Amino acid sequence: MESKSKIIYIVRHGETFSNKKLRTPSLSDCLTADGRRQIEKVTEYFINNNINLDIIVSSSLRRAIESTSIFTKNYSHINTVYLSMFNERLFNPMEEYDYFLSRAVQAKEYLLDLKANTIMVCSHASFIKCMVFSFSGFYLDEYNFNYINSGTGIKNGGIIRLVIKNGLLTSVKDLNNSVYIK
Q: Is the pTM of this model over 0.70?
């Protein structure tokens, strides 16, 4: 029996004041006017491409909640779940690598277990990279974490589409030229 693919759209929250100043964000960091426009463009992308979502899963940090609330003005009929497992790594005090990486694996398992086929996730740069890495099947450890964080990133308001079939990642696509390589 052939399994239906699961499509996961991963969106990085809009630009914050800390992002703009190239500072480590605080837990209460909020979006700039540009950040709100970035999420409005994400919403336009979903509308223009007739993307129908089954559920939205978001980090419980303010910048992700604010991004999700802008998005759901046009998708208010979609159930939205806010979970701390999708939060960015804590920097003060510093969250241990092992715990942070285990959250990325837990998030992957949570998404795979959802009874939904089309999911949007709103989260944060480092967490997104770790989660995508965990979907790829590679072992996550401190070395890999430092490696994937050293040379690539996802811009604020970026959208990455993952296609999962039978629990395996079959496709990754940058939908709005949001991934960069240093």
A: yes
